[in-house]
Amino acid sequence: xxxxxxxxxxxxxxxxxxxxxxxxxxxxVEKLENLNEKYIFxxxxxxxxxSLFISMLEYYYDIKHRGNFExxxxxxxxxxxxxxLHNDYLVLVLDFSGIxxxxxxxxxxxxxxxxxxxxxxxxxSYEKCLDVRDxxxxxxxxxxxGMVVELLRLxxxxxxxxxxxxIDEYDHFANELLAFRVDMFKELVSxxxxxxxxxxxxxxxxxxxxxxxxxxTGVTPITLDSFTSGFNIGRNLSxxxxxxxxxxxxxxxxxxxxQIVCSNCGTSLEEIYQQMSAYYNGHKFCDEYLGGKLFNxxxxxYYLSDYQRYCRPPRRLIDPNxxxxxxKIGNFFRLFEIEEGREIINDxxxxxxIYGNLTVQFNLERKxxxxxxxxxxxxxxxxxxxxxxxxSVEFSIPNYVIKELYYSYLYExxxxxxxxxxxVEELRAAMRELAYQGKIESLVIIIEEFLKKVLSNxxxxxxxxxxxxxxxxxxxxxxxxxxxxxxxxxxxGYIDIFLREAPQFPVDYEWVLELKYxxxxxxxxxxxxxxxxxxxLQRYMQKVSSQARRNLKGALLLFSSEGACLDYSTD
Length: 571
What we know:
By secondary structure, this protein is α/β, with parallel strands linked by helices. It has four domains: 12-243, Rossmann fold (3-Layer(aba) Sandwich), CATH 3.40.50; 251-317, no CATH class; 322-396, no CATH class; 420-570, no CATH class. The radius of gyration is 27 Å and the shape is globular. A hairpin with a 7-residue loop joins strand 10 (493-501) and strand 11 (509-518). It has a five-stranded parallel β-sheet with strand order 2-3-4-1-5. A five-stranded mixed β-sheet has the order 9-10-11-12-13, sandwiched between helices. It has a three-stranded antiparallel β-sheet with strand order 6-8-7. The protein has helices spanning 12-17, 27-34, 50-61, 69-73, 77-80, 104-125, 127-130, 135-139, 144-158, 172-180, 182-189, 194-207, 222-226, 251-262, 269-280, 297-310, 320-326, 338-351, 370-379, 400-418, 424-437, 441-455, 465-476, 523-544, and strands spanning 39-43, 90-95, 163-168, 211-218, 235-236, 353-356, 384-389, 392-396, 482-490, 493-501, 509-518, 551-560, 565-570.
């Protein structure tokens, strides 16, 4: 019997009662209660399991599910070790995803609808307990905060039970505004804004003891920091080492899941793990955490759902549902000077690491600085903490999926700025020649034409070989034929580009590419660079020959500052 994988299922009751596999995160319920912190913020990237965790908390704390406790939680840690607070609350759940932010009016209306839905469900759930007689009167209130005020009054008047408030995606609509309408965002979180007023009501409810617990999820702390003076009661645990793996799959959890799902496929389980690790692992949010890095859980379930059915990885290793969310990286450049932001990305892509410090508190009233941008990339899951490097933090790209999204973004920018009209099918044909015939000539022509267009208007005073490599990698990533590695450590140096066989596309040839940039294209300047490059290429090919799964070939490509390919040699 195949394992039921909860891909795309955010409802804990469905997962538990219908026999879906559940990576047990319930020990964190006990840890959260032992903190003696009642009002918690926890931020993680999109599709990281936040909604299912919120749903689990809802069923754990909701008084109306007391009779189903054993059925829902009996197989999990918290079912065997329940805390005194289980099923002891009236639970108010609010979900702020999916709000239309095109105008101020649509944003307000969307926010109101979300509060209306949550309050309406709450009143329906506890109608008898609260002796609800004027439900419609409450739900017709025009201000979101007004609805909550009346709900709190009703609870105080009718019961001694307290409220556990759960908010999912608290900043989803705000992030849309930050990307396109910063002024509107500032207005909404100002003292007169409806978002600030709403959270001030929640703070009052907590101060009065009616809201006893609060758990709020989102992606970035920008919105939280923007109304801190109006809502300064919560603790942000997002970078706390004790709660690092509260969401996401650990390496051990992922290995166990692979063992269960793939054991009948006749494939090396370690090989499957290494493939998944390359594409989906690598998230770490604080240096103090001593465990391994985290897998994106949605991506893991996406991959294993296909593997369970066909005993092979999905043809598209990036879940389209995730790609649509993560591709919004470019939107946040609107908070930052575009050239500065792109320079950070170029440095990251060229070296695979970047250095900076985490912003303690975001402030949109001042210029968005480099560390602000780097911190935002961390919260969004686009970079990962590697280690402390002196007084700075070393960050890296978490995995291949994120790297491909960066390159997609860079190509879109190049398209817009340089009017590129690349015929992708010609590139794919050239990559097929590379992969199955071991011929690079067609690809060299395409690279040369591409570079001439991109580099024609550049100021070359600060141009480096690393910039050349980023441009070429951006082009190559338009094809999915290979798993592309750069800056791979080799003997006395780093390989510029290693084109390895991708899990979903068998090839006949793998390639090592060594890139050289010659500022002056005179013959006497070319020869020493060419000799050096060929020597490096030979060294690097010997180094990776043991890793190559297919026939290994190499090529040295020499380019001028105008993008012309001055020479190329293959081995």
